[in-house]
Amino acid sequence: MRSDGSALNLRRWWRSTGFAWAGILYSYNSQANFRIEVWAGVLALIAAAFLRAPLAPIALACALVLSLELVNTAVEAVVDLASPELHPLAKVAKDAAAGAVLVASAGALVVAAVVLLPPLWKVAGGG
Ligand SMILES: Nc1ncnc2c1ncn2[C@@H]1O[C@H](COP(=O)(O)OP(=O)(O)OP(=O)(O)O)[C@@H](O)[C@H]1O
User: Fold this and answer.
1) Atom 21 in ligand 1: residue holding the nearest Cα
2) Which of 11, 47, 52, 121 is 20–30 Å from 78 (CA)?
3) pLDDT tens per residue, the chain (127 residues)?
């Protein structure tokens, strides 16, 4: 039986978290869309807190969009590495990954409208 198992796993987990954080930082620094989505999410969360609207649906929608944007960045990097020349399948991979972000963003807009508009309407004196 290994006595140092848990300490080793914790160190490995910490190392993996560092790699994941590096991926997030790379996306933030290289992808304008990711930066826009991060700050749109922060604004939506601040608005939800200010309006005393539920935070969980907004947080989940933001997490979905940002996660898919990270996957999109990964797909773009792998496609550029594997297929620097134009190829129809490279186009399918990049366009489908971008489509996933678009679908999640549309869903996030619907969530934001459903969660934020009613309390905003009240604050504005409409109800
Ligand atoms: N190797 C490739 N073969 C075929 N089509 C490609 C290839 N690389 C990119 N494309 C296509 O060209 C168009 C533009 O792609 P490009 O990667 O320049 O921009 P993008 O997908 O908007 O990503 P970025 O965030 O880097 O601007 C997309 O339709 C994409 O699918």
Assistant:
1) 94
2) 11
3) 455 567 779 999 999 999 999 999 999 999 999 999 999 999 999 999 999 999 999 999 999 999 999 999 999 999 999 999 999 999 999 999 999 999 999 999 999 999 999 999 998 887 6
Write the CATH number for 53.
1.10.287.3610
ipTM of predicted assembly, 2 dp: 0.91
- Residue 24's CB is within 10 A of a number of other CB atoms, namely 14
Task: Judge if 47 and 2 occupy the same domain.
Answer: no
The pTM of this model reads 0.90
Residue with tokens 């009240």: 122
82 lines ligand 1 (CB under 6 A): no
CA of 73 to the centre of ligand 1 (A): 11
Question: In the structure encoding, which two tokens stand for residue 53, read together?
Answer: 């609207």
Report d(CA 52, CA 36) in Å as an integer.
24
Q: In whole angstroms, what is the distance from residue 22 CA to residue 81 CA?
A: 19
Domain that includes residue 104, residue range: 31-123
Shared domain for 45 and 103, answered yes or no, is yes
